[in-house]
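Researcher: I'm preparing a figure for a lab meeting and need a structural model of a single chain. I don't have an experimental structure, so a prediction will have to do for now. The sequence is pasted below. Please return the structure as C-alpha cells so I can convert it later.
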Amino acid sequence: YGYYVFDLSVGYDQDVKQVEDILRKVDEEIRGEDAWKAKIMAPIEIFGLDKFGDYAMRVGARVKTRPSQQWAVGREYNRRIKAAFDPEGRMNPGRLPIAAVSAEVAS
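Model: Understood. Here is the structure written out cell by cell.
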C-alpha cells in the first residue's frame, strides 16, 4: 500500500472544523465512485491543524491507497478539494507578502 499525504494551507480567518468537514465530504464522494473505490483502501485520515505558518494554517491529512496508486488518487483529491474550497475562498496558497528591495550604488 501507499499513502498520499496532504498539507493544505488555509487562511487564519477559516474555521478548521469546516475545512475538515469539506475534506470528509470530498473523501466520501471519491470513495463512492467505482473508478476510485478500488484504489483507495481506507477513509481519509485527518490529522487536523498541524502547523501555524506566517500567513496560513496547515491542515494535514492522508489517504491509504493500493500500491503505486497514491499519485493518481492524490491528483484526483487535489482537483476535487480545490473545486470544493474555491467557492468558499478557504484555501490560501500563494498569498505571500511582497517584499520591496532597493539597492543603492555607491559612487
